[in-house]
């Protein structure tokens, strides 16, 4: 994605690394290759998507109502842009871990930007 970064930056799509410094509750935009889609039966219709860019992963939470509305983009995209609310919180007491995720509100399929590179990508790991 480094080759596409100038264009993505013009669209205000942040890297995974940039999101790490975003404040909790801030509206953000991110973009990445879809590496995992999960919709566990125990999650009551919530979908979890992992995007990866040149700087790392972004975990995305998609509530059930949005899964229905954005179904095509969620299930078909190789390169996906997501707009939503950034959430981050400290891990358990005594831990240095920080839990970070993007609660999705809108999506855009940017797969056409990949051109022929998209043909070389391995498909996402999808679990239902």
Commentary on this structure:
The protein is of the alpha/beta class and 128 residues long. The chain has one domain (5-127): OB fold (Dihydrolipoamide Acetyltransferase, E2P) (Beta Barrel), CATH 2.40.50.140. Helix content is 20%, strand content 41%. It has helices spanning 5-10, 16-19, 64-69, 71-76, 117-120, and strands at residues 27-38, 47-53, 56-62, 79-90, 98-109, 125-127. A 5-stranded mixed beta barrel has the order 1-2-3-5-4. It is globular. The model has no long low-confidence stretch (mean pLDDT 88).
Q: How is this structure best summarized?
A:
This protein has five helices and six strands; from the N terminus they run H-H-E-E-E-H-H-E-E-H-E. The protein has helices at residues 5-10, 16-19, 64-69, 71-76, 117-120, and strands at residues 27-38, 47-53, 56-62, 79-90, 98-109, 125-127. The chain has a five-stranded mixed beta barrel.
Q: What shape does the CA trace take?
A: globular
Under the CATH scheme, which architecture would be assigned? Beta Barrel
Q: Tally the beta strands.
A: 6
Helix content range of the residues, please? 10-25%
Low-confidence stretches: none
């Amino acid at each position: 994605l480094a080759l596409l970064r100038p264009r993505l930056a013009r669209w205000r799509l942040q890297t995974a690394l940039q999101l790490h410094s975003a404040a909790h509750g801030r509206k953000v935009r991110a973009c990445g290759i879809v590496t995992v889609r999960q919709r566990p039966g125990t999650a009551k219709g919530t979908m979890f998507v992992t995007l990866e860019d040149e700087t790392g992963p972004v975990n995305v939470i998609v509530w059930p109502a949005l899964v229905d509305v954005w179904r095509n983009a969620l299930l078909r995209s190789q390169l996906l842009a997501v707009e939503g609310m950034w959430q981050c919180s400290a891990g358990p007491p005594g831990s240095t871990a920080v839990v970070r995720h993007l609660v999705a509100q809108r999506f855009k399929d940017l797969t056409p930007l990949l051109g022929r590179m998209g043909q070389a990508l391995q498909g996402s790991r999808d679990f239902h």
